Amino acid sequence: MSAAATREARVGRRGTPESTGGRRRRPPLWTGFVLSVLAILVGFPFLWLVLTSLRTRNSVFSGTFFPESITFDAYGAVWEATNFPSHFLTSLVLSVLTVVFVVALASLSGYAFARLRFPGRNVIYLVLLSTLMMPATALILPLYLQLRDIGLLDTREGLLLLYVSGGVPFAMFLMRAFFSTVPIELAQAARIDGASEFQIFWRIYLPLTKPGIATVVIFQFLSTWNEFLYANTVLQSPERLPLQPVLFTLIGQYQTDWPMLTAGLVLSIVPVVLVYVRMQKQFVAGMTMGAVKE
After folding, report:
1. Which terminal CB of the chain, N or C, has fewer other CB atoms within 10 Å?
2. How confident is the model at residue 23, as a pLDDT?
3. Would the CA dihedral through 103, 208, 170, 191 be positive or negative?
């Protein structure tokens, strides 16, 4: 055996997972320590939220960290005092419809900006991206006047229009990036086989960008579900408000029922957690796409 072959054999014995019984290299101890500290810092507010919702009102700041007695009275109180099911349903419908429209529009526009050639493409793309630089507080007054002029003020349809128009630019930016990672040879082969442009988009590109769609769904659902400024400004009738502005009314000027407030917040977190758990794998794949290159 030559010297080069001997060196390769030694490297293979030391560097391959098979030489160590299929075991991967363990991360350093400080990595686990840092991740544990971060997990505690992130999880502590949520733990405090849940424990506070299970306390009595007079033991929120005077008792121990873990409540001596557990009660679910705050959940029943917030359920009845805020008409929780109605406002919860309003938030859910607005969030789902916003996600559906944003994903549809962002997918079509992202594909067009990534793979189609048309006059003014770069200019239009930059104009849409420039809207991301405008803060919501600077847009609230002109949007309010526009909704008033077209008769959509104090309507859920008008609020839905604001959510969709505000969410499309960022979602389009993400989808364009994902469509750009798909090899263009797939589209060229499909055109040779006689596929139309929409068939290429629907049957080839869209299935390959599921991680991007999951990323848009999570970001858009989270931002719409937790949105407060537009909802509190556009909707003037209390019965039409989504959940977040209603929970904000539980904060009193002089005193606040903390168990009831935290109980409402715990219930409002459930849909966000379910959406993330459902699309976690696709979301992680979307975040790491392109990080490894062969």
Report:
1. C
2. 60
3. negative
Task: Kindly compute the dihedral angle of the four CA atoms of residues 270, 271, 275, 277, in this order, to the nearest 10 degrees.
Answer: 10
Rounded to an integer, what distance in angstroms lies between the CA atom of residue 239 and that of residue 167? 25
Eight-state DSSP code of residue 240:
G
CATH for 86-241+275-288, options being 1.10.3720.10, 1.10.10.410, 1.20.120.450, 1.20.1050.10: 1.10.3720.10
Gap between the terminal Cα atoms of the chain: 31
**Mean pLDDT to the nearest integer, 222-244:** 93
**Averaged pLDDT score across all residues of the chain:** 86
What is the DSSP secondary-structure string of 14-60? HHSGGGGTTPPPPPPHHHHHHHHHHHHHHHHHHHHHHHHHTS-GGGT
Report the 10 Å Cβ neighbour count for 131: 13
User: Could you report the per-residue pLDDT of 120-129, keeping only the tens digit for each?
Assistant: 889 999 998 8
Least Cα distance to 96 among 175, 179, 156 occurs for 156
Rounded CA gap, 211 and 207, in Å?
9
Count of other CB atoms within 10 angstroms of residue 44 = 10
Alpha helix positions (H), the chain: 3-15, 29-53, 73-81, 84-115, 121-130, 136-149, 156-181, 184-192, 197-199, 206-208, 210-225, 229-234, 243-248, 258-278, 280-288
Write down the residue that tokens 């219930």 correspond to.
267
Q: pLDDT tens, 74-113?
A: 999 999 999 999 999 999 999 999 999 999 999 999 999 9
- 181-218 residue pLDDT tens: 889 999 899 999 899 989 999 999 999 998 899 999 99
Query: 3-class SS at 101?
Result: helix
